[in-house]
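Hi, here's the filled form for the chain we discussed.

Project: internal
Contact: R.S.
Residues: 167
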Amino acid sequence: MAKEYDIDKAAGACGQCGRQLRPGENLIATVKEAGEELKREDFCETCWAGGDRDESALLAVWWSKVPAPQQKKRMLVDDDVIVGFFERLAEADEPAKVNFRFILALVLMRKKLLVYERMRKEGDGREVWLMHFRGDERIHEVTDPHMTDEKIAEVSQQLNQIMEVEM
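And the returned structure, exactly as it came back:
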């Protein structure tokens, strides 16, 4: 099955100046909308501080350190970043973003941060999950894109690629 979108892994270089990022160095990772796709881009502190970039399409930003080559992969983001990413995709209607948001919802449910309340069936046959965050009764609607197991695994792998350090 062809991928609907492709999110690059960390390139190991600054997305603005192109300089290789060194182990132990701070980096700023971003995910932004690029047309109907999502794109990851990393920056060195100098370029990020320079502010010479278009931030209008940014969906998520997080700070981390470049790991040593022998260091095991680790998550770059905390729960707040995942929640923010989930919320920013609320109005998305492109299939790739709907799929991605659904996977984020599953991750947040697994972390016991997002609670499933019930499902609503739309007139066009779509199923919409009604959910809320623990301690917040505000309802979030999540479209169930009815992905195959293969597609869920593919989107989950892409989520891992952007959320982990791998240089």
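Let me know if anything looks off before we file it.
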